[in-house]
Specification:
about 210 residues, alpha/beta, Dihydrofolate Reductase, subunit A, nine-stranded mixed beta sheet, two-stranded antiparallel sheet, 5 helices, about 30% strand, binds NADP nicotinamide-adenine-dinucleotide phosphate, DHFR-like_dom_sf
């Protein structure tokens, strides 16, 4: 069965998955790179990086994924909709290598990139978007790639089977919060946590089977 998965979503102790304001120069706003320093230090992110526990967990991001869904604010900074040359942050060969569905209220033609990534732009409910992504995923799993708003909406709609969060020991104070509207989430999920020597805590939420 095709699962819906979130991986490597990094949140501060106070629950923010990005800082503010987001811009071309500061995609994570005042958070800078602090939410992802744990990942930048791994071999998963770059040659020569660490090959320890964070690396092993981070790599699960890639396994068995046939399509990604992301939000408009992950795809680009404010104003990208009006830039005809904007093709995402990731250069000519983005790291997705699958059909990638960008949720946006502004229509946009698909963009075919090198390496198997095609960006499709979709104005749809989470359930409708997931149906389209599943159809494109060829029986593999669908990753919800972020940001916080889109992950929160998919979790709230009961569509996420596996959620991997990385709690980073920083306090941001402001930004986009993950947890708003998700009270009692723990009822629906089996939750495990493990802290690693880098100082982050990996949390996995696996949806309990329904009776
Ligand atoms: N912490 C992490 O691990 C992590 C991971 C990924 C991304 N990020 C960061 O998170 C930030 C982005 O997160 P975010 O919460 O601001 O925004 P987001 O979730 O990326 O995107 C939200 C936007 O997507 C569009 N959208 C969402 N649902 C839609 C729907 N059902 N139909 C049509 N359009 C829809 C809307 O944009 P429009 O109305 O403008 O079209 C909405 O404002 C970025 O800074 C990114 O770098 C962090």
């Amino acid at each position: 069965m095709s699962l819906t998965r979130v991986h490597n979503l990094s949140v501060s102790l106070d629950g923010f998955a990005t800082g503010e304001p987001q811009s071309l120069e500061a995609p994570f706003g005042h958070a800078g790179e602090r939410l992802h320093e744990w990942m930048f230090a791994t071999c998963f992110w770059g040659e020569g990086g660490a090959t320890g526990v964070d690396d092993a967990i981070a790599r699960r991001h890639e396994e068995g994924i046939g399509a990604e869904i992301m939000g408009a604010n992950k795809f680009g900074p404010p104003g990208w909709h009006d830039d005809p040359d904007w093709k995402g942050w990731w250069g000519p060969n983005p790291p997705f290598h699958t059909p990638t569905f960008v949720l946006t209220h502004r229509p946009h033609d698909p963009i075919e990139m090198e390496g198997g990534t095609t960006f499709h732009f979709l104005d749809a409910t989470p359930a409708e978007a997931l149906e389209k992504a599943r159809a494109a995923a060829g029986g593999k799993d669908v990753r919800i790639g972020g940001g916080a708003t889109v992950v929160r909406d998919f979790v709230a709609a009961g569509l996420v089977d596996h959620l991997h969060l990385v709690q980073v020991p920083i306090v941001l104070g402001r930004g986009v919060r993950l947890w708003d509207g998700l009270a009692a989430l723990e009822v629906d999920y089996t939750i495990e946590a493990v802290s690693t020597p880098s100082g982050v805590t990996h949390l996995t939420f696996d949806r309990r089977p329904t009776a």
